[in-house]
What we know:
By secondary structure, the chain is mostly beta strands. It is 4% helix and 33% strand. The protein has one domain (14-99): SH3 type barrels (Roll). It is built from one helix and seven strands. Strands 4-3-2-1-5 form a five-stranded antiparallel sheet, with no helix packed on it. Strands 6-7 form a two-stranded antiparallel sheet. A hairpin with a 5-residue loop joins strand 6 and strand 7 (97-99). The protein is globular and about 35 Å long.
Amino acid sequence: MSKTRFARYNIGQVIRHRLYAMRGVIFDVDTSFAGTDGEPVPEGAATGLVYRLFAEDDEVPYVACISERDLEPDDSGEPVSHPGIGAMFEVGEAGNYRRRRHAMN
Length: 105
């Protein structure tokens, strides 16, 4: 019997890392993340959900996989500058990110 898990955060939500200067927009929630070649399993992933996000720090934009326990909401209202966001999300008037109905290439 499988255990039902509920995500604490939502697709399109802006979050930040609890410890590091990183923030981003969630684009996927993974309940079965086991890592792939070159992509290690995040610490603590076995006990919680893993979120994929368009992330940024002080240097470069990138895609990150972070355990739920290492994230917290980002209520700064500042936009996230990542080149992948525009293809998947529309930005609302309040600065929120909504998934596009049709993907852009």
